[in-house]
Design a protein that fits this description.
single chain, 285 residues, alpha+beta, eight-stranded mixed beta sheet, four-stranded mixed beta sheet
């Protein structure tokens, strides 16, 4: 049975869509609700099958006095998400992993700084599939040598990318390994650098090519709704926003395809319009 193609102008209603590729995520729903609250406009989901080629996630109805389009993007790291999925699959939900062949409890950090520093998926992170088996073998070696700290051991460093690997005195857990992630974040604590410069670079880079393409042919106001995620390079920006409640003053360098940017970082919302400049709000959503 052939499914009829959607008409060229028909939107996918958020409450009634049946196309898997049109179904919005919870983050997209939250983002467009915030955009609606800030603009006073109602938006409809754009059907992915309505027309060929790139298109925005949402548009106002054709009868709207202020035609606008919204494309939602999440500023997150595919590498961190892959690492988290690997932890769930290979290490499970519990941080402690019993190892009867050991005599002590070991605390081992897995450094994911490289993953947090990139938006992409190809960063250098610890290999988790064989991690426990190889760690146990190396820790058996350290215990056999009477050592209680393996942070500077080359083999341990190669497995964990971290300097933290030591025994836990008087641990009630018994022989085994406690694993936990760690990472560092680079930032200046200055809004103009951590927010404005960071966003300008992202918007004008290849990372935002799909965003710009989706809005390029829209005739109304073109809005980029960006959801900042602490899993990735946006972590420094988010922390600076939480520590500094002022509003940026430096103009945001926008690509030609974008008229406004709405940045959502938890309850902190910044919006930038080429005619108005920066505004900052706190939304409990």
């Amino acid at each position: 049975m052939t499914t009829p193609a959607a008409s060229q102008d028909s939107p996918c209603a958020r409450t009634d869509n049946t196309h898997p590729d049109c179904r919005p995520s919870a983050d997209e729903e939250r983002a467009v609700a915030i955009v609606s609250a800030l603009t006073g406009l109602d938006f409809e989901r754009v059907c992915e099958r309505s027309t060929p080629g790139p298109k925005p996630d949402y548009r106002t109805a054709s009868s709207s006095p202020k035609p606008s389009a919204v494309e939602v993007k999440q500023l997150t790291s595919a590498a961190v998400r892959r690492h988290r999925a690997g932890r769930d699959k290979h290490l499970g939900a519990e941080p402690f992993h019993p190892a009867p062949s050991l005599t002590r409890t070991w605390l081992v950090f897995l450094d994911t700084t490289d993953a947090h520093a990139t938006f992409g998926a190809d960063s250098h992170t610890p290999v988790l599939k064989t991690l426990l088996r190889k760690l146990i073998a190396e820790l058996e070696r350290l215990e056999g040598n009477g050592e209680t700290d393996g942070g500077r051991d080359p083999a341990i460093r190669q497995l964990t990318h971290s300097w933290v690997c030591s025994t836990v005195p008087n641990s009630p857990l018994g022989p085994g390994i406690i694993t936990t992630d760690s990472h560092g974040t680079t930032r200046t604590t200055d809004l103009e650098t951590d927010v404005v410069h960071f966003l300008s670079e992202w918007l004008n880079s290849d990372l935002a090519a799909n965003l710009r393409s989706s809005l390029r042919t829209e005739s109304g106001r073109r809005i980029a709704a960006l959801i900042a995620d602490s899993d990735g390079p946006a972590a420094g920006m988010i922390r600076t926003l939480y520590e500094n409640d002022s509003t940026p003053s430096t103009p945001l360098t926008l690509p030609a395809e974008i008229d406004a940017v709405i940045l959502i970082a938890g309850t902190h919302v910044l919006d930038y319009d080429i005619d108005i400049g920066w505004q900052r709000r706190t939304i409990d959503f």
